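re: the backbone from monday

yeah here it is again, tokenized this time
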């Protein structure tokens, strides 16, 4: 099985069973679109030359003959080397825990979106140069199950709700904390929850839940108002300091009393 996706101007190809990662050209990407990624054996058919001829004919109007021939040879080499369309064997599908790769911490992106537009944002203002979206409850639960399953004999685990801005998906965050507490009781684990927030969406209810259930809360601000407002703006380009300073102060002052 392969997974082929685009990130910015890169075509990234993951061969799931071998773990091999390739950066490929637009031409190779188009070639691979002819194969069923759920049937890797199709790429090892006896009539490989006929398969090559069919693909080259289909792409002849888009690419020169020599480029097509070279790209097909590259694909064939990767297959023969075992780093593309590898078969799903027990050795290929061995779990991280079986390999000794015990996991003790997880960063859950509750939101690939943000309500700020910081000038220096490494996450592309929250969408990571992709689609703005929110973590689903179902996916979040599967992630927690995976962490517990792969934690080996470690008792203390960590989950950080991150973004973007996780408060944009706070109902799911709350449900995942509740789910995590249930799972840790059943598995004899302890999960330390952390939430990283810019504070814009903080209110009394969110503050109470965070202080009551989060082991850590990470708050972000850029110091003096003139510095913060030059770099950390709302989507409408207004400054944020006056909207967050009171909320950040309040949650920190009340944290010891609630937690």
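seq for it, each position gets an aa:
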């Amino acid at each position: 099985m392969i997974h082929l996706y685009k990130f910015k101007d890169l075509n990234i190809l993951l061969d799931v069973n071998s773990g091999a990662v390739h950066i490929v050209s637009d031409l190779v990407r188009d070639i691979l679109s002819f194969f069923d990624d759920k049937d890797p054996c199709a790429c090892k058919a006896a009539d490989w030359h006929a398969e090559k001829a069919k693909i080259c004919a289909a792409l002849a109007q888009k690419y020169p003959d020599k480029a097509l021939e070279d790209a097909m040879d590259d694909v064939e080499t990767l297959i023969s080397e075992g780093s593309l369309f590898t078969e799903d064997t027990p050795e290929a599908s061995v779990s991280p825990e079986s390999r000794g790769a015990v996991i003790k911490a997880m960063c859950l992106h509750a939101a690939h979106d943000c309500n700020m537009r910081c000038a220096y944002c490494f996450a592309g203002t929250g969408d990571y140069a992709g689609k703005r979206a929110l973590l689903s409850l179902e996916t979040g639960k599967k992630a927690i199950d995976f962490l517990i399953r792969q934690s080996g004999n470690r008792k203390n685990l960590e989950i950080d709700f991150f973004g973007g801005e996780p408060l944009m998906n706070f109902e799911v965050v709350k449900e995942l904390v509740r789910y995590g507490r249930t799972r840790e009781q059943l598995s004899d684990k302890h999960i330390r929850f952390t939430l990283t927030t810019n504070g814009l969406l903080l209110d009394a209810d969110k503050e109470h839940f965070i202080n009551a259930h989060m082991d850590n809360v990470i708050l972000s601000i850029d110091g003096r108002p003139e510095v913060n407002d030059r770099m950390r703006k709302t989507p409408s380009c207004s400054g944020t300091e006056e909207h967050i300073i009171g909320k950040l102060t309040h949650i920190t002052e009340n944290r010891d009393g609630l937690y």
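Residues 105-258 form a domain with the TIM Barrel fold (CATH 3.20.20.70). The CA atoms of residues 200 and 224 lie 17 Å apart.
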